[in-house]
Amino acid sequence: MTEDSILSKLRRHSRFIGDDCAIVRPRANEDLLFTTDFSIESVHFTRDQKAADIGYRALARSLSDIAAMGGRPRYCLVSLALAPWTDTRWIDAFYSGLLKLAGSTGTALAGGDLSHSGQLTIDVMVCGSIARGKALRRSGAKAGDTIYVSGPLGGWTHKPLIVPRLDLGRKLAGKAHSCMDISDGLALDLHRLCRESGVAADIETVPLLPGASVEQALHDGEDYELLYTAAEQVPGIPIGSIRKGRAGALTFAGKRLQPRGYDHTQHSS
Amino acid sequence: MTEDSILSKLRRHSRFIGDDCAIVRPRANEDLLFTTDFSIESVHFTRDQKAADIGYRALARSLSDIAAMGGRPRYCLVSLALAPWTDTRWIDAFYSGLLKLAGSTGTALAGGDLSHSGQLTIDVMVCGSIARGKALRRSGAKAGDTIYVSGPLGGWTHKPLIVPRLDLGRKLAGKAHSCMDISDGLALDLHRLCRESGVAADIETVPLLPGASVEQALHDGEDYELLYTAAEQVPGIPIGSIRKGRAGALTFAGKRLQPRGYDHTQHSS
User: Which of B75, B79, B111 comes nearest A38 by C-beta?
Assistant: First the structure.
């Protein structure tokens, strides 16, 4: 298994790979959206998980960011640093899982990088598009807005499959005042949204995944549901409201809530 | 040092970081170019190298790809998985080196991702732009073209500093028939260019960096000079010519040359 043999396989799935860069021709009157997400062995997944699921999830995490902006995914770059234990079968299954989700969401594989490392490391960049000036931002929440989430919460231990909320995100564009995806826990991510918007928030209730605790729903990471605020009624589960106050201040059920959540830079060992 | 404290620092250097995606507004009549390159501890650098040099080099590798297409860099996404040994001082120095090169080449820091890993891992995505349809490709080499390189070769052991050939790349756009950067060794990369173009090549001479052997110049990686072919005279060092023949076949000084080079997927241990 050599670099060129892997690239030859991938070219069957991509009309782009072959030059130093992927070439993208923008359409008129659109903005482009870029996001990139690591998936690292022993941090985001373990090697005993199915390779196809790891590939699916690596792309899904970036697609969730495109959904949070109200965008439509167009291209992805997939960078892969192989570990000593990865073999041809693993690589094939990884790309099959990733390309299945790419196909169902209209995301073309446009390139990437190949390397090696002690821990299997994946970085997926997605380029999406949206009508000019229509991207959903974190910074637009207004006092009086209702706060919504797109589904029940509880963190990664209760949610094996990420479903990027692309359809919902597109519906919210032009309606919601603010939006982001919940990747590091509701409390920390809502704190960030409120800080960007210069507002405070009161959470009244949180919808729970089966088996999840309120603590997990508030502070665990990897939910990948959308968190958004709107003055008009929009699809989703209302959980509270935005008010004037110290930027980023939160309450839950009337009590002050600490913005604790998952910190990606911290080693757990 | 928390994720949010690192992001707060970076926001001083970027008007983008803060949403789930960076938003890029394309200009009329341009194509966009995307490339991504890993820089991994013990593979692309060692931890005893200066953090500022590691940051500079991580961006320079991707800028070299933009140069190879004749483009102008516009934005970068910098993904960083911190190792247990990296501290605040290291991170500051890393970004200072990277941002210095970003500033001097007009590349705006637009976002990225933060995580952690056993080996320090960096992935830099660069988005560049070029007039519509003018990107230099690998696939345009024609029999009779002169083959050029942009500087003397010899691989990473003889070249501590990468200078992305952005000015030269832009001059070659519209003049050269084909172009790529030499990252995996002249022989392997010229083989790839010829394969894409359906032609063969004869190398007559290779310009050497001080102290480098012909073997290193042909088969060592990490040169980051441009390799290009043109029918008209263009700036650079002529090293041979393109001819009809089996796609990808090479000779050096009249003898058959194997397309050996650096393979990024192979563990050296």
Answer: B79
Residues 6 or more apart whose Cβ sits within 8 Å of residue A240: A146, A147, A201, A202, A203, A204, A205
What does the pLDDT look like over A16-61, one tens digit per residue? 677 889 998 899 899 999 999 999 999 999 999 999 999 999 999 9
- Which of A2, A21, A128 is nearest residue B65 as measured by Cβ atoms? A21
- On the question of a common fold for A3-131 and A146-256, the answer reads no
Cβ distance of B118 and A114 shorter than 8 Å: no
Please, which residues have CB within 8 angstroms of residue B12's CB and are 6 or more apart in sequence?
none
The pLDDT tens digits of the residues spanning B195-218 come to 999 999 999 999 999 999 999 999
**Region B27-131: CATH code:** 3.30.1330.10
Reported as a single tens digit per residue, the pLDDT across B13-26 is: 766 667 889 998 89
Nearest to B81 among A38, A77, A116 (CB): A38
pLDDT of amino acid A263: 80
Whether B48 and chain A come into contact, CB under 8 Å, resolves to no
How many angstroms separate the CA atoms of B175 and A38, rounded? 39
Q: Is the minimum CB–CB distance between B113 and chain A shorter than 8 Å?
A: yes
Distance CA B140, CA B145 (A): 10
Answer whether B195 touches A (CB < 8 Å): no
Q: Which fold has domain A146-256?
A: Phosphoribosyl-aminoimidazole Synthetase; Chain A, domain 2 (3.90.650)
